[in-house]
Amino acid sequence: MERKFVKKELIEKGWSKDKKYCVTDDNGQKFLLRISPLEQLEYKKAEFENMKEIYALGIPMCEPIEFGTCEEGVYSLQSWIDGEDAEEMIPTLPDEQAYVYGCEAGKILKKLHEIPAPEEIEDWELFFNRKMNRKIELYRACDLKYENGEVFIEYIEENRHLLKNRPQTYQHGDYHLENFMIDRKGQLVVIDFNRNDFGDPWEEFNRIVWCAQVSSHFATGMVDGYFSGNVPMDFWKLLAMYISSNTLSSLPWAIPFGQAEVEVMRNQARDILDWYDNMKNPVPKWYRNNTIHIKQIKLDKSKENITRTILEALPDWFGISEATEEYIVDSKEKPFFCAYADDIPIGFLYLKETGRHTVELAVIGVLKEYHRMGVGRKLFEHAKNEAKRLGYSFIQVKTVQMGRYDIYDDTNHFYRSLGFKELEVFPMLWDEWNPCQIYIMAI
């Protein structure tokens, strides 16, 4: 190194085994200095050349300036990023701003994946099946286990076929919030390319779990930015398999680092199983919930169309055609709210006045595939706020009494979870097989 440095400060953040320093030259300019063992010379040289190629694409990152050997080993000198760690900054931002930064991260990743893998690279299906087999063996040989951890293995076995004919590109190798900074101008910057590799570009998302735990809006933006909002279902299915594979090996990996790191991985596994409904739904809750929005509907024709579309898709709850038609006709001129996923109606709710101070939750319906995702709760919160605005003091709702049918037991549990209290049962309001339970809530 020909530059003269007058200050050298050790950087202790991160998991990399490289020694990292902030060095300052005699002109007061700061640089990032990374030093690796000499035996990594060829690997680090290739890493540095890759970084130069990436920098030429216009990726916001440290500029690779100089590479060589010194008394301590192999060094690389890079420009210094003056800013804040994104992992610390993103959670403090409004949801909308976190989403915008996530979109930017997704667009950057898409640009990175324009770099092709070498032609002689091993077939991805063969390579990754072998990798997953090794991780399954590690997990099964480990003395510790996740609660319900076998579902990860079951999901892998059911979806190995998705690896066939997957393309391969350059990978950053550790693309998540810990490896982003936000500079003084507000620009998102990618750091730490020391785990770079080649593989399926979609596998690069396997560390999005770390992003989702910090900010679901950032994680959602990252996916939307990469796919320009048009996310293929095969992506979700593959990502769920890649995350399952990673999760299996995380537990044995954590053991040498102590109990605290083991608990981090256990908690992460619990989050993943919750997001994916025990690996039964490949689209995680953190994404589904962030793409669902509620709108109040004013046009009566739109109310009728939405009511018909949703109720006809729910025959287990709304199987009597005459009653369904009454709900459709009755939707007119009522406070009406619709839940949308990607601009497609997935649920609705409308209110009906039953007295001067009371409004009834007349009907609520949510497509079955969106159950247990908070859609009904979001609809109700909007409806309750509207009832308050209109000056009502109480909301009531009717359903079949608990203990008669499993699906209506779920409905009872849902209303109770919203805060409704039992008021009275009318055994013959509908018929003897469907005693009517009335719930009430003060608002």
The total beta strand count reads 17
Shape: elongated
- Per CATH, which architecture of the largest domain? Alpha-Beta Complex
Distance between the termini: 71 Å
- Computed structural class: alpha+beta
- For CATH, the homologous superfamily of the largest domain is named as Aminoglycoside phosphotransferase (APH), C-terminal lobe
Average per-residue pLDDT, rounded, comes to 92
Number of helices: 14
Largest sheet: spatial strand order = 11-12-13-14-15-17-16
User: Low-confidence parts, pLDDT < 50 over ≥5 residues?
Assistant: none
Helical fraction: 40-55%
How many structural domains?
A: 3
- Say what oligomer this is: single chain
Top-tier CATH class of the largest domain: Alpha Beta
Q: Roughly how many Å is the radius of gyration?
A: 27 Å
Any idea of the CATH topology of the largest domain?
Aminoglycoside 3'-phosphotransferase, Chain: A, domain 2
* Biggest sheet character: 7 strands, mixed
Q: How much of the residues is beta strand, in percent?
A: 15-25%
Short description:
With 443 residues, the protein is an alpha+beta fold. It is 41% helix and 25% strand.
Tell me what the structure shows.
The chain is of the alpha+beta class and 443 residues long. It folds into three domains: 5-79, Phosphorylase Kinase, domain 1 (2-Layer Sandwich), CATH 3.30.200.20; 83-290, Aminoglycoside phosphotransferase (APH), C-terminal lobe (Aminoglycoside 3'-phosphotransferase, Chain: A, domain 2), CATH 3.90.1200.10; 292-442, 3-Layer(aba) Sandwich (Aminopeptidase). The protein has 14 helices and 17 strands. The chain has helices at residues 41-56, 86-89, 95-112, 124-141, 150-159, 208-214, 216-227, 233-254, 259-275, 285-290, 300-312, 321-330, 375-389, 406-418; strands at residues 5-11, 19-25, 30-36, 64-70, 73-79, 83-85, 169-171, 180-183, 188-190, 197-199, 292-297, 336-341, 344-353, 358-366, 394-400, 421-431, 434-442. The strands form four sheets. Strands 11-12-13-14-15-17-16 form a seven-stranded mixed sheet, with helices on both faces. A five-stranded antiparallel sheet has the order 1-2-3-5-4, covered by helices on one side. It has a three-stranded antiparallel sheet with strand order 6-8-9. The longest helix is centred in the middle third of the chain and has 22 residues, at 233-254.
